[in-house]
Design brief:
This protein has helices spanning 20-25, 29-39, 51-61, 127-132, 136-142, 151-158, 164-170, 205-219; strands spanning 3-7, 14-18, 41-44, 64-65, 73-75, 107-114, 122-126, 146-149, 176-179, 181-183, 189-191, 197-200, 225-228, 235-239, 243-247, 257-263. It is α+β, with helices and mostly antiparallel strands.
Length: 271
């Protein structure tokens, strides 16, 4: 059995080198979860897990969300493989999964099956580290702000001139008011930002939008970001409660295929 770690950047991202049997044993599950919380992203390079192995490994880390076909969700823009492919175009913009829910998912586990010849990297921003580096004055200023998040706001990045019917479809998913600063049960704080963030409650609309863009730019500075360039067989986990992520642009007809499993949430945004 092998197990070793290597940090990929000072503030975010750790590579774990381990064989599949070691990972499936669950022996290091608690350690992997601790690294995930502290570092935001855990990378296993060219581990080449099958769907069954990926599901089993996910289960060693927490409660698995059933994503459909044998528990695995196909992340692809190919509509023949995934009828929801158009919705997934929102992944090109910084976001946190599940902001329209009270309890978002804990983490996603993504494995690369087929890559695009160009583009298709995934970037991750450590929103714990971004909060920690704020001045005490800014922390106090943002401490009690509330932000309204909606699917509609995220989808308007993809479809800036939607039909009325499309807009009504987006609005079937209720908006959600969340704290700008997520005060975790662990005692650490992270910023809740991304493309679903529509406006700041109680703040003049334009001023609120300006603040959200300013903080997104701040939180996605190079010192807070890890960019993963995929190889087939790579498996990456990210802490959805303490990171934002996005895919870099790639041709829509590239056939890029990722298989995803998810860990159920364990903590509400209200802490």
């Amino acid at each position: 059995m092998t197990f070793s770690t290597r940090d990929l950047s000072p503030r975010i991202g750790t590579e774990i080198q381990a064989d599949i049997d070691t990972l499936l044993s669950g022996k290091h599950a608690a350690e992997i979860r601790d690294i995930l919380e502290q570092r935001g992203v855990v990378v296993f390079k060219e581990v080449h897990m099958s769907d069954e192995q990926q599901l089993a490994f996910t289960g060693t880390l927490g409660n698995v969300i059933d994503e459909g076909e044998k528990g695995v969700y196909k992340v692809t823009l190919d509509t023949k493989e995934n009828p929801q492919a158009d919705y997934l175009k929102g992944a090109f913009f910084w976001h946190i999964d599940g902001t329209t829910l009270d309890v978002p998912i804990l983490a996603s586990i993504l494995s690369a099956k087929k890559l695009s010849e160009t583009g298709g990297d995934t970037e991750f921003s450590n929103t714990y580290a971004a909060y920690e580096d704020l001045s005490e004055e800014d922390k106090a200023k943002y401490d009690n702000l509330k932000v309204v998040h909606s699917l509609e706001n995220a989808q308007q990045y993809v479809h800036p001139e939607p039909s009325y019917e499309t807009m009504q479809m987006w609005r079937r998913v209720p908006s959600n008011t969340l704290p700008l600063v997520w005060k975790h049960k662990s005692g650490r704080n992270s910023l809740v930002l991304g493309s679903t963030a529509a406006y700041v409650e109680g703040m003049e609309y334009q001023a609120g939008r300006e603040l959200l863009v300013k903080l997104r730019d701040y939180a996605t500075q190079p010192q807070f970001v890890y960019r993963h360039k995929w190889n087939v067989g790579d498996l990456v986990i990210w802490d959805n409660t303490g990171t934002m992520h996005r895919a870099t642009r790639y041709p829509l007809d590239s056939g890029r295929m990722m298989h995803r499993t998810k860990l159920a949430g364990e903590e509400s945004f209200s802490g």
